Amino acid sequence: MSALAIRVQGLSKRYRIGGAAPGPGHLREALMDILAAPFRRLGRPHLAAADDFWALRDVSFDVQQGEVLGIIGRNGAGKSTALKIISRITPPTAGRVELYGRIGSLLEVGTGFHGDLTGRENIYLNGTILGMRKWEIDRKFDEIVAFAGVEAFIDTPVKRYSSGMYMRLAFAVAAHLDTEILLVDEVLAVGDLEFQRKCLGKMDEVARTGRTVLFVSHNMAVMRRLCGRGILLDRGRVVASGTMDTVADLYARPDPEGDAGARFDPRDRHGVGWAKVTDARIVDEQGGAPSKVIPCDADLLIDLSIEVTDGMPAGTSLRGLVVELIVCSDDGQPLLSLMNVDDTGVALPDARSCRVLVRLPGPTFVPGRYRINTFVGVPFLQHVDEIAGALTFEVGPPAAPWRPYDLSTARGLFCRKAEWSCLQPAAPALRWDETGA
After folding, report:
1. Is pLDDT at 65 greater than 60 in this prediction?
2. 122 vs 116: CA distance, rounded Å
3. What is the separation, in whole angstroms, between the first and last Cα of the chain?
4. pTM here?
């Protein structure tokens, strides 16, 4: 039996929502509180009552040395809160964490970088913040720079870096920590596609070196590849624990408390926000939301509502914006991109709101669960509104089966029909020696 690396016992974290803020702890904070008090009362005659929100409730688990554990769950399940408590960024309300080894965290890439310092100086600064000694940074320096691909700009202030260069360098520093325990929270999507492959390869290498790793990610394909065991969190509690494949399959099942049909979930939203997708639905031919799964041989109809955000100046319209839908498998792998500019002449109107109806002719996808990411903006210029996992829906068996075998992901994800021909040659094919070649 391997030695213990992490023990989490009865971990709970409570946050106060609304109500009075805690009193100042320093003289400077007290003076600022006195000066700001008259302005806080303007337009807020009644102070909202405080509510308790439990991000974690009585979470317990052990991690053995050399084990790679994946923590999964929907947005708000408590995954990041758990890692922040384990890494001692925030204290728990109740419970305890025991750590047996030096710990490193890849929670918020780029923490500690200073824009006026060069890439070289920031490597030493950030490495020190993350717990590395100078001789360790010296030993890893060339490897860090080569991994980030910023050799030509290493002595340039990072405020002149592009956002991609900045994130690549920050990830490279954190990924080369020499620790017994490593915590990784959704940071494998930094940089371009090539660098993401390097990140995944680096994490794969870390996982094979015998170090203890805790992963948090929504990418189930990555979690299944890297993690041997998994924990499923829901509303702050552990609801399942076991092999990563088993836990990921449980996570992929529809929520029994949710709608049987498609669900719009705008929580994972990013962008400048002057226009937003306010609703997304799967509809039937009559325009109503279906209550059952969509047969894989039926057309897939997606109905979007897009509006200019309240408070934007008069005359602001949706004209010129591009709408993209990215259909993904339930583990987050992109399958299909649909854009309104693909259909010549279909543009958003000179108005503050509109509905967009997208039809994907059937057959579509094999039975299973799928997600749609939405994008509204101007490609390469401005991301106005992006929602990851905006719409979740189910595809069921065909209404009129046409083949003797079941349609399943074992044979692919797309469900299409092709045109087949069977031709009979007029004469036997010639051999090489008969052609004179």
Report:
1. yes
2. 9
3. 68
4. 0.57
Which is more confident, 435 or 83?
A: 83
Does residue 193 sit in helix, strand or coil? helix
In terms of DSSP H, where are the helices of 56-162?
A: 79-86, 119-129, 134-148
- Hey, how many other C-beta atoms are within 10 angstroms of the C-beta on 84? 20
Task: Quote the tokens at residue 301.
Answer: 């109809």
pLDDT above 80: residue 29: no
Which residue segment(s) compose the domain that 275 sits in?
263-403
The pLDDT score that the predictor gives to residue 350 is 92
Pick the closest to residue 69 from 148, 2, 10 (CA basis): 2
- Sheet arrangement for strand 51-64: 51-64, 4-17, 94-99
How far is Cα 117 from Cα 239, in angstroms, rounded to an integer? 46
Q: Does 120 share its domain with 152?
A: yes
Q: Are residues 84 and 119 in the same domain?
A: yes
Residue pair 111/104 in contact (Cβ under 8 Å)? The answer is no
Q: Say yes or no: 223 and 269 in one domain.
A: no
- Residue 407: the pLDDT is 72
Q: Does residue 62 surpass a pLDDT of 90?
A: yes
Pairing of strands 212-216, 181-185: parallel
CA dihedral 78, 163, 137, 118 (to 10 degrees): -140
Listed ranges 12-16, 331-335, 403-407, 421-425; the one with the highest mean pLDDT = 12-16
CA-CA distances (angstroms) from residue 59 to 9, 19, 41, 107?
Answer: 7, 27, 39, 20
pLDDT band of residue 258 (cuts 50, 70, 90) is very low
Strand bridging mode 382-396 / 368-378: antiparallel
How many domains does the structure of the chain reveal? Answer: 2
